[in-house]
Task: inverse folding
């Protein structure tokens, strides 16, 4: 394996030999350095060099999960690659200002060439909608740098993408974009119980259930209990929101010791297809409507489920969802699925997430990191290219 050197005085990267390509820049020969990395060589290229795009401020503050970023760099370095974290404000004409994780367990600010691949980890939807973020993404794509994943997935757009795929239709719940009070009435009278979700929310936020109990319409939120409301009251609330909401048919859920559960599936692209990187089980607190751990949910191992997980079905769903998401959103290489199970054992896709959180299960975390690095390598052209 080769060595690459960074000189903090000149803010330049060097290699023993001149002419080697590092990202989109050609290096000069030199060994003077503040620190060095081991790195792969493929023909005249050194790398891969991976840029991790997050959000920040003009004064240099960065947001994001830096524990995850450090783990990525440590794992990538063991394979002979380098990653760095940057915000849209770090993009300059000939270089990018960002931060690299050093073996001394600290972040160091450097100048980097434009990278071989960019991993989009902008942490918030509102940050992704900022003009500077959109401009940075456009600038990177215009330089022919592979960038994934291109954006968050709005729930309504994901549903539309999945609905266009005949193989996925049996695994979808009727979902409607709530544009009028009549839309809400239609869903309630068709299904008696529905979930209402903000299309652009995540992590179990901005979600509640509605169901008829006799003549009463009951609204339930996890942390606020149940309330009797009218359809007009609900619509008045929804119509004042700045973000769109969807309604989704509720299922009669399979229960684990009197508690509902769902499956969280990590998916990565590999060799022109999509594969499962891990399946986690999330068990809701008794009486709660969502399974997210911050809302009282619990992580359990698959072996504790009374109903075995159907890997054959989930593999098919991962592949078909991946292809559908690519058709709708572009270069999707990583996502997760929330899959519900009804009392007959049938699977339903609740939603897809473009920027999944770290799985707490160690074996899933290890596998997802391994497969993410494989995506970096492939997208950067250091192994068989992906579509």
Result:
């Amino acid at each position: 394996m080769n060595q690459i050197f960074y000189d903090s005085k000149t803010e330049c990267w060097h290699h023993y030999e001149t002419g080697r390509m590092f990202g989109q820049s050609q290096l000069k020969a030199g060994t003077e350095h503040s620190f060095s990395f081991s790195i792969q060589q493929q023909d005249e290229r050194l790398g891969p060099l991976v840029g991790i795009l997050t959000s920040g401020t003009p004064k240099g503050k960065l947001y994001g999960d830096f524990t995850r970023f450090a783990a990525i760099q440590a794992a990538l370095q063991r394979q002979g690659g380098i990653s760095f974290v940057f915000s849209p404000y770090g993009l300059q004409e000939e270089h990018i200002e960002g931060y690299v994780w050093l073996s001394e367990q600290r972040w160091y600010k450097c100048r980097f060439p434009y990278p071989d691949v960019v991993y989009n980890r902008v942490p918030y939807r509102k940050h992704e909608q900022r003009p500077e973020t959109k401009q940075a993404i456009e600038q990177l794509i215009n330089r022919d740098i592979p960038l994934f994943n291109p954006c968050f997935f709005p729930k309504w757009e994901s549903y539309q993408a999945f609905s266009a795929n005949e193989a996925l239709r049996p695994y979808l719940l009727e979902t409607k974009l709530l544009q009028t009070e009549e839309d809400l009435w239609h869903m309630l009278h068709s299904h008696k119980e529905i979930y209402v979700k903000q299309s652009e929310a995540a992590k179990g936020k901005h979600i509640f259930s509605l169901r008829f109990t006799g003549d009463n319409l009951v609204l339930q939120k996890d942390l606020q209990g149940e309330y009797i409301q009218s359809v007009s009251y609900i619509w008045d609330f929804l119509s004042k929101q700045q973000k769109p909401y969807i309604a989704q048919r509720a299922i009669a859920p399979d229960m684990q010791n009197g508690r509902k559960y769902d499956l969280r599936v990590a998916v990565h692209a590999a060799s022109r297809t999509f594969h499962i990187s891990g399946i986690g089980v999330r068990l809701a607190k008794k009486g709660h409507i969502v399974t997210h751990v911050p809302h009282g949910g619990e992580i359990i191992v698959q072996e504790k489920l009374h109903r075995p997980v159907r890997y054959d079905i989930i593999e098919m769903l991962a592949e078909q969802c991946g292809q559908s998401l690519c058709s709708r959103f572009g270069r999707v290489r990583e996502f997760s699925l929330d899959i519900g199970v009804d009392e007959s054992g049938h699977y339903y896709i609740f939603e897809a997430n473009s920027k999944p959180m770290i799985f707490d299960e160690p074996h899933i975390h290890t596998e997802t990191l391994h497969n993410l690095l494989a995506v970096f390598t492939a997208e950067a052209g250091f192994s068989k290219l992906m579509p």
Remarks:
- The chain has a mean pLDDT of 92.
- The chain has three domains: 2-147, 155-171+252-361, 175-249.
